[in-house]
Amino acid sequence: MIFSFQITDAVVVAWILNATLVVPELDHHSFWKDDSEFSDIFDTDWFISYLSKDVTVVKRIPYEVMISMDKLPWTMRTPRKSMPEFYIDEVLPILMRRRALQLTKFDYRLANDLDEELQKLRCRVNFHALRFKKPIQTLGKKLVRRLRVMSSRYVAIHLRFEPDMLAFSGCYYGGGEKERKELAEIRKRWDTLPQDLSAEDERTRGKCPLTPHEIGLMLRAVGFGNETYLYVASGEIYGGEETLRPLRELFPNFYTKEMLAGDDLKPFLPFSSRLAAIDFIVCDESDVFVTNNNGNMAKVLAGRRRYMGHKRTIRPNTRKLNVLFQTWNQTGWDTFSRKVKKIQRGLMGEPDDPRHGRDDFHEMPSSCICQRVPVNRSATMQTRNLLSQVR
């Protein structure tokens, strides 16, 4: 799925360069093999209109620019977490010389710590300009209504236990040689990890998602009863129904988009990004959202739920919980529950849980909400002086 932070930062970079932004092209070569375009997922006209006072956005490179270029647009990849100064010093001269420039692999290519005006622009893009297409919104809201008919409250879990997630993170869950070969094949195919990675070490370091069973045990331990309604956002689960069964047994009121949508989901089935967008809507509307991997979608959802009005987001302490789960059935339930509650302190989505200055911007949009944090004035003035030279 194309995540909004990449598009958000592309808009901010266009502002920094005083450049016209062409509606972003989505990656069609990822593991998910989704050929959706920006306009298949987001409302393009709304995106262009909403940002018109900030950045000029066009649907394609103007014809007169195309014919003036000797070749296709020049491509380059910028370093991760680059500051505005880099774009002014290194990217702007190329753009002015070439007239059109394509920045590739635009994930985390802009620094998180920017001055307040640029952070506010990020907010306008991320939480207002990006709006899902009408069919996606309609189905997502329909699923929310169907859940609300059954229960006034529900918990959404971004389970993130798909084969690609386990392979990319280098995780191992005790499935023997069969699991090792299957996940190694995915890693080899996409050349994502060194082949000597220790999968066991990754779990002990807290770099792996919990299993569906472990997520269920954590929720029961912190106080969610078996009458709780769960919405599970996920693609193909590694291990299939066998892996999901323990979670279903802990929470019989278990639902997915496939279960709730029925035939309404058929037009979306070939497109993983659109399916993820439907999950995004249902998770966003939930009373409690549980992340199982602090990845891109989870960060954007957590930030949105704070920005739009506080709603609880629970983040498992995977490092400590993985250690506890190795011996959890050797102690009584009361002892286990007490330990889980202690481990999860500060991660249960209370209003004062977020750590200003440590969490990712998209997870904690601090300069966009009422509680203000100090701004690095010297850095702000330096950036402003640089920007004034090119605007």
From TrEMBL:
Family: Belongs to the glycosyltransferase GT106 family.
GO molecular function, one term: glycosyltransferase activity
Protein name: O-fucosyltransferase family protein
GO biological processes: fucose metabolic process
Entry keyword set: Carbohydrate metabolism, Fucose metabolism, Glycosyltransferase, Transferase
PANTHER family in the cross-refs: O-FUCOSYLTRANSFERASE 16 (PTHR31818), O-FUCOSYLTRANSFERASE 29 (PTHR31818:SF3)
